[in-house]
Amino acid sequence: MESAKEVGPSSLQHFLSQSIASWDPEHQVNEIPASSYCIRRITKDLCSICKYVIKIYILILDSKPAPGICVVPDNEDMTKIYALITGPFDTPYEGGFFLFLIRCPPEYPLMPPKVKLMTTGNGTVRFNPNFYSNGKLLDNQEVTAKLKRRDFDE
Fold first, then answer.
1. Residue 101's domain spans which residues?
2. How confident is the model over 80-126, as pLDDT tens digits?
């Protein structure tokens, strides 16, 4: 007969740290290096974002300031991307700076990137029900489930 596994603070702490590492791009380390296709696709997508911002500036905003979107990959790890978005004028978010950390898995684009809102005031500020207080972005399945339950407290 196999003995029962001890459950205590250390095993709970290990479980929680593993759970955080599984979604949190800040603590996630890609154990498999990204393929050259993955890196090329990230580069292509970043260029597309830049072209889109320029297009908005030229076609839509004409002489107004460019929208506050800045997307930059990490110097040492192309799969780790930082995005800074400033709050749009004439909105409650005006004057705000919203920093996101995006981590593309080695299987990108077949697997979606993980996104974390870093501007949370250590979990004290929540800007939107699509973000947990720790910065985790809810995926579509989580959003649908929460809408059905009308549960946005977590």
1. 32-119
2. 999 998 887 888 888 888 899 999 988 988 888 888 888 877 767 77
Phi/psi region, residue 84 (left: phi>0; alpha: psi -120 to 50; beta: rest), is beta
Q: Measure the CA–CA gap between 105 and 35, rounded to whole angstroms.
A: 10
Q: Is pLDDT at 40 greater than 90 in this prediction?
A: yes
Please tell me the pTM assigned to this model: 0.64
Look at the chain and count its residues: 154
**Could you tell me the pLDDT band of residue 64, with boundaries at 50, 70 and 90?**
low
Cα separation, 14 vs 50, in Å, equals 40
* Pair (72, 114) in one structural domain: yes
Residue 8 lies in a domain: no
Query: Strand order in 80-86's β-sheet?
Result: 69-73, 80-86, 97-103, 114-117
Phi, then psi, of 149 in degrees rounded to 5 = -90, -10
